[in-house]
Amino acid sequence: MLWEGKSKNSFKYHKPAIMSLSLVTGGAGFIGAHVVNELVSMGHKVVVVDDLSGGFEDYVNKDAIFIKGSVYDDKFITQLFSEYKFDYVYHLAAYAAEGLSHFIRRFNYNNNLVGSINLINESIKHKVKCFVFTSSVAVYGAGQLPMTEDTTPEPEDPYGVSKYAVELDLKSAHEMFGLNYVVFRPHNVYGEYQNIGDRYRNVIGIFMNQLMLGKPLTIFGDGNQTRAFSYIKDVAPYIANCVNVPRAYNQVFNIGADQEYTVNELAKTVMKVMGIKGEIRYLPARNEVVNAYSDHSKAKKIFGIKEGTFTTLEDGIRKMTEWAKTAGARKSSRFSNIEIMEKLPGVWLEN
């Protein structure tokens, strides 16, 4: 392995003698920008591709090459692979608004499925050493707790369906063409660089933005639904370094925090850490999995993750708060191309 433990949630990378060239899609976005930082620290030369629909060019590491473009544009992806000989592909580009995916089905499948296939095709043709894909616990669906990698996925929304379809295609590509892959299923990741102006996803960012704008915190249903919230710097190093762990190849891993919380508990923690007493506005329940948390035994074994090393929820929110207050609140824009209006939550139509 090319890194060694230095302190809690901090890694010292040993730079390889031969520099690897890695493509990171979505590298101007939240998780992608952190993975890019880790790869640069590891000594990789990194090319970032992002269409900036949810990311920001300012987040891209200054030592990476940035190219604006969409993974859905097959001609662009073909040209990209003809110009660069990538050793590794880290595919993090996606529109990850799980709840909204019911209402933007065409957009969801074009971006999250067809765009992924464009990358897989070129990775096969150009003999990429390993294709790293960030999937989601959305593939599991409901009633399968704790969610484990050997459980048969039963996704309940188009976002989960698209992610699972890419997983299946990677497995097929490996069996047919020998393309190695590693799949991660992270969950409820939060932290610095999160787009807090996105009203459709990332509840912690939504809460922080609402508090800074003096608006009530919006919670769907009674707030007793549970999630385990994962701090970004506990997740990104393992995604980046997995290509150096041969035992991880052609496998799927849950990754993230173990402790689950209700959304009500989350709201209280965010208000406490930010020092702002806000109101809570309860909305009609939406169609979503009520309880979702994963088992991480497999990742702990393969990647050597020690018990108790992940950041506590309060500490992680405190770190994100410091960044969010510096970055400032963002105006929450509406998605411009809703395909189905029936049953769309009314709060998503508000100005």
Which band does the percent of strand residues land in? 15-25%
Shape field: globular
Number of strands: 16
Biggest beta-sheet profile: 7 strands, parallel
- Judged by helices, strands and strand pairing, the structural class is alpha/beta
Series of secondary-structure elements, N-terminal to C-terminal: EEEHEEHEHEHEEHEEEHEEHEEHH
Continuous helix count: 9
Helix content: 25-40%
The strand line-up of the biggest sheet is: 5-4-3-6-7-8-13
What's the mean pLDDT score? 91
Terminal CA distance: 50 Å
Estimated radius of gyration: 19 Å
The low-confidence parts are 1-11
- Tell me the quaternary state: single chain
Walk me through this protein's architecture:
The chain is α/β, with parallel strands linked by helices. It contains nine helices and 16 strands. The chain has helices spanning 30-42, 74-83, 105-125, 158-177, 203-212, 236-241, 263-274, 297-303, 313-327; strands spanning 3-7, 10-13, 21-25, 45-50, 65-68, 88-91, 130-134, 181-186, 189-190, 217-220, 226-228, 230-231, 251-255, 260-262, 280-283, 291-292. A seven-stranded parallel sheet has the order 5-4-3-6-7-8-13, with helices on both faces. A three-stranded mixed sheet has the order 14-11-16. α5 (203-212) crosses α7 and α7 packs across α9 (313-327). The longest helix has 21 residues, at 105-125. The chain is globular and about 55 Å long. Mean pLDDT is 91; it is low at 1-11.
What's the short story on this structure?
The chain is of the alpha/beta class and 351 residues long.
SSE arrangement:
Layout: E1 3-7, E2 10-13, E3 21-25, H1 30-42, E4 45-50, E5 65-68, H2 74-83, E6 88-91, H3 105-125, E7 130-134, H4 158-177, E8 181-186, E9 189-190, H5 203-212, E10 217-220, E11 226-228, E12 230-231, H6 236-241, E13 251-255, E14 260-262, H7 263-274, E15 280-283, E16 291-292, H8 297-303, H9 313-327
Parallel strand pairs: 3-4, 3-6, 4-5, 6-7, 7-8, 8-13, 9-12, 10-15, 11-16
Antiparallel strand pairs: 1-2, 11-14
Helix pairs in contact: 2-3, 3-4, 5-7, 5-9, 7-9
